[in-house]
Amino acid sequence: AQTVTQSQPEMSVQEAETVTLSCTYDTSESDYYLFWYKQPPSRQMILVIRQEAYKQQNATENRFSVNFQKAAKSFSLKISDSQLGDAAMYFCAFIIQGAQKLVFGQGTRLTINP
Amino acid sequence: ETGVTQTPRHLVMGMTNKKSLKCEQHLGHNAMYWYKQSAKKPLELMFVYNFKEQTENNSVPSRFSPECPNSSHLFLHLHTLQPEDSALYLCASSQEWSADTQYFGPGTRLTVL
C-alpha cells in the first residue's frame, strides 16, 4: 500500500525562526515525485515545492527547502525565516510515475507566533 | 481569471436536492481531478479526466456524477446526498495526465442537511 505519514499534527514557531515539518512515505516503486502543499484558511491548496525521486539534489524554493532521503523514504520541509503568512496546513504528497493519484498525508497545522 | 476556479464556494443542500459544482481551469491543462477533503482524513481522489475522458473512478457512489464537456471545464453533479458527504470538494488540473504537478482550485464547502 502507498501511504504518507506526517507525524506532527501541529507545530508552532516564532516569527523569523526556522521550522522543519516531517514526512515519511511508503511505496515499492522507485520512480515517483514528491510534493509539499500548503492550505491556508482560504482553503486554496498551494504548491510549495516539488522533488523528483531520481534527483539527489534537494529542491529549494526561496525560504522553503526539503531534505529528501530516498533510502529512508523521508521528505521533510524546512521553512526558514518564518513569516506570519506561512501559517497554514501543510500536506506532504507523492505520485508514482505512470499514475494519476496523488497520495496525501493527513497534514501538519503550522502556527506562526509573532 | 487565472489558475483554477470553482463555483460555488459554499453550498448547503438537503438530501433530496440536486445541485452541481463547477470547476474551470485557465492553465491550458489536459487533465482534471475531483478530490474530497473531509475532516481528520487525507484527501481522497474521486475522479480523473484526461482529454475529457474519464480515466479513474475511485469507487465513488453513484450519487456523485462527474461531467467533463471539454478539457477546461469539469462538473460534479450531486443528487440524494447523505450528511456524511459534507466536505470540501477540491478540483485540480495538470498539464500531463500522469505524475505531473496538480494545481488546485479554492474548493467548494458542501453541507448536506
Task: Give your account of this protein's structure.
The complex is a heterodimer of chains A (114) and B (113). By secondary structure, chain A is mostly beta strands. In chain A, 0% of the residues lie in helices and 53% in strands. In chain A, strands 2, 5, 6, 10, 11 and 12 form a six-stranded mixed beta sheet that branches. In chain A, strands 3-9-8-7 form a four-stranded antiparallel beta sheet, with no helix packed on it. In chain A, a hairpin with a 6-residue loop joins strand 5 (32-39) and strand 6 (46-52). In chain B, a hairpin with an 8-residue loop joins strand 9 and strand 10 (103-104). Chain B is 0% helix and 57% strand. The mean pLDDT of chain B is 91. At the A-B interface, strand 5, strand 6, strand 10 and strand 11 of A face strand 5, strand 9 and strand 10 of B.
Task: Describe the structure in brief.
The complex is a heterodimer of chains A (114) and B (113). Chain A is mostly beta strands. Chain A has strands at residues 3-5, 10-14, 19-21, 24-26, 32-39, 46-52, 60-61, 64-69, 74-79, 88-96, 103-104, 108-113.
How many individual β-strands of chain B? 11
Could you state the order of secondary-structure elements of chain B as H and E? EEEEEEEEEEE
Radius of gyration of chain B: 13 Å
Straight-line N-to-C gap of chain A: 41 Å
Tell me the total number of β-strands of chain A.
12
The biggest beta sheet of chain B is recorded as: 7 strands, mixed
Bulk shape of chain A: globular
Uncertain parts of chain A: none
Uncertain stretches of 5 or more adjacent residues of chain B: none
The percentage helix of chain A is: under 10%
Provide the residue-averaged pLDDT of chain A: 95
Measured by DSSP, the beta-strand proportion of chain B falls in over 45%
SSE topology string of chain A: EEEEEEEEEEEE
Give the count of helical stretches of chain A. Answer: 0
